[in-house]
Automatic annotation (TrEMBL):
Domain Helicase ATP-binding: 24-192
GO cellular component entries: bacterial nucleoid; cytoplasm; replisome
GO molecular function: 3'-5' DNA helicase activity; ATP binding; DNA binding; four-way junction helicase activity; hydrolase activity; metal ion binding
Protein name, as recorded: DNA helicase RecQ
Cross-referenced CDD domains: DEXHc_RecQ
Keywords: ATP-binding, DNA damage, DNA recombination, DNA repair, DNA-binding, Helicase, Hydrolase, Isomerase, Metal-binding, Nucleotide-binding, Zinc
An example Gene Ontology biological process: DNA replication
Residue ranges constituting the Helicase C-terminal domain according to the UniProt record: 215-360
Catalytic activity: Couples ATP hydrolysis with the unwinding of duplex DNA by translocating in the 3'-5' direction
SMART domains: DEXDc (SM00487), HELICc (SM00490), HRDC (SM00341), RQC (SM00956)
Source organism of this protein record: Paucilactobacillus vaccinostercus DSM 20634
Cofactor(s) it depends on: Mg(2+); Zn(2+)
Length: 585
């Protein structure tokens, strides 16, 4: 067997995606490797294929309980023996599964880092572990957006394994600094980075709109589509869910305040497409391997670009056109600041989080291509995507050079020692005590924008910061300074242009009659077997069936996502629907 034959026979794919074959060959050559691939880029294939070529067991370390179950279900569906051990199981069930692993009836064992660092390690150490796959590897770095102390012991634990396994660490969000930290901590010899671009994902920023109205209009235009709406607080999740439910939207919710039973029930309703819209805090989704999520909408701004890109990347994992939309409101930035303020992080960590939040706010205000902005953050140079809301904005640019000069001049006259709020107050002629205290009411720039609201001026300051005419310096209370580009504007050597905010365009695929028939059969099969529908076939597979219209089982094997085991289980049932539809036409 070769990696290529396993890819086709077990997973139904004709070709590897970018980076997958390189990573697999590196593993088979017994080199430790870091794999950096975007969400939906096919990271799991990178260790699942070599797991079937190795004699021993592959140990998959993941903090994501839901993902463990989804991936084990999908592997078993492809006749690949896999199991998991985590906190959802009682002791007798764990003992049963460990016994199966010890009898080598299992090729892949999924465990959480906490479980690995418990009393089960001694039994696991006796196993012929040939490969250790560490998912969400950014959790091991203090520079990452989701650092977890339970990951710190992994290096020591893995070194204690007598079988000396190969290590593959996988992540979708790693800046160059985070990647270097992972490499050093895990003693990895090689890095394979495929690029962070998601060609099927359209990024949008929606500003200055009633977000509730936008959500209702969007969901009415995209009925039957599966999507996630993220909010920052439990209270907002519950408010949005109630509002959407009253308007007839098939919606459920997920947050940490719900009981374990409620969370599981609501999650299953979403996974099984019974309720296609999920409103959730960011506690939801990291471990959901649901391939047919067509949109991810952030009703409130997340705390960092890493978090945003990971959450947005849960849309379109099947490769079909999907959308990631940020509904930006200035007040939401203050909510994230409050979270940082109230956290138990040390001062240095808080300062890093404030800086990340500032960059996230700049994303919402940049005139640059949105995907390009994100890729630049991760150290990757890329051309404009041509499909984000900034790239598609055909409105004429307005010359705002004079307004920009007024702001930049005010920053200079205030000594470049203050933040956005006070600058906006001075420009709008506010009489608040702090303005008087520093005698800023005597500045020539005081009240220059008295006909504009402080909100409007604050948004202009955000735009100038995102466009690098101003530079934010500091953590919790950043001060603004004029950049070299800003100096050129002040001297009249450079003009500043700005476009008005644009409402996100909506261009999701339209369902047709045959596709709906196939979805219904898939849903019935999934319900009878107790697995999510995408475990049977992905939306991409169903759409390809509708396009290619195979007339034999052999022809079905050429369709993306259909391997030999799927043909044996479902081929005849789906083929009969296709043939019947063709006869009717």
């Amino acid at each position: 067997m070769t990696p290529q034959t396993i890819l086709k026979s077990k997973f139904g794919y004709d070709t590897f995606r970018a980076g997958q074959e390189d990573i697999i060959n590196t593993i088979l050559e017994r080199q430790n490797v870091l794999a950096i691939m975007p969400t939906g880029g096919g990271k799991s294939i990178c260790y699942q294929v070599p797991a079937l070529l190795e004699d021993g067991i592959t140990l998959v370390i993941s903090p994501l309980i839901s993902l463990m179950k989804d991936q084990v279900d999908a592997l078993n569906e492809n006749d690949i023996p896999a199991t998991f051990i985590n906190s959802t199981l009682d002791y007798p069930e764990i003992a049963t599964r460990l016994a199966q692993v010890e009898r080598q009836e299992v090729k892949l064992l999924y465990v959480s880092p906490e479980r690995l660092d418990s009393g089960y390690f001694e039994r696991l150490a006796q196993l012929p572990v040939s490969l250790v796959a560490i998912d969400e590897a950014h959790c091991i770095s203090q520079w990452g957006h989701d650092f977890r102390p339970s990951y710190l012991r992994l290096t020591e634990i893995i070194k204690q394994l007598p079988s000396h396994p190969t290590i593959v660490a996988l992540t979708a969000t790693a800046t160059p600094k985070v990647a270097a930290d992972i490499m050093q901590r895990l003693d990895l010899q090689r890095e394979v980075k495929t690029g962070f671009a998601r060609e099927n994902l359209s990024f949008k920023v929606v500003k200055d709109q009633d977000s509730d109205r936008f959500l209702l209009d969007y969901l009415k235009m995209n009925t039957e589509q599966s999507g996630i709406i993220y909010a920052s607080t439990r209270k907002e999740v519950e408010r949005l869910t109630l509002m959407l439910d009253k308007q007839g939207v098939p919606v459920t919710m997920y947050h940490g305040g719900l009981s374990k039973q409620e969370r599981q029930m609501n999650q299953d309703d979403f996974l099984f497409d019974r309720l296609p819209v999920m409103v959730a805090t960011n506690a939801f989704g990291m471990g959901i391997d649901k391939s047919n999520v067509r949109f991810v909408i952030h009703d409130q701004i997340p705390g960092s670009l890493e978090a945003y890109y990971q959450e947005a990347g849960r849309a379109g994992r099947d490769g079909l056109p999907s959308e990631a939309i940020l509904l930006f409101k200035l007040n939401d930035v203050q909510i994230q600041r409050f979270f940082i303020d109230q956290s138990e992080m040390d001062d240095a960590t808080k300062a890093r989080e404030y800086d990340k939040l500032q960059l996230m706010a700049q994303y919402a205000n940049t005139p640059q291509c949105l995907q390009q902005y994100i890729l630049n953050y991760f150290g990757e140079q890329a051309p404009a995507c041509g499909q984000c809301s900034n790239c598609l904005d055909e409105r004429e640019s307005q010359d705002i050079t004079v307004a920009a000069q007024q702001v930049l001049s005010c920053v200079k006259r205030m000594g470049e020692r203050f933040g956005k709020t006070l600058i906006a107050q001075v420009l709008t002629g506010s009489r608040v005590e702090r303005v008087k205290q520093f005698q800023f009411d005597r500045l020539s720039t005081y009240g220059l924008m008295k006909n504009d609201s402080q909100k409007k001026v604050s948004e202009l300051i955000d735009f100038l910061t995102a466009s690098n005419y101003l530079v934010a310096d500091g953590g919790q209370y950043p001060v603004l300074k004029v950049s070299a580009a800003g100096i050129d504007v002040l001297r009249g050597q450079q003009q500043v242009f700005r476009k008005a905010a644009v409402q996100a365009k909506q261009s999701l695929p339209v369902n047709d009659e045959l596709f709906e028939q196939l979805r219904q059969v898939r849903r019935e099969l999934a319900e009878s077997q107790g697995v999510p529908p995408f475990v049977i076939f992905s939306d991409r597979t169903l759409r390809e069936l509708c396009t290619t219209m195979p007339t034999t089982l052999d022809e079905m094997l050429s369709v993306h996502g259909i391997g030999e085991s799927k043909i044996e289980k479902y081929g005849e049932q789906f083929l009969s629907i296709l043939i019947e539809h063709e006869d009717e036409v």
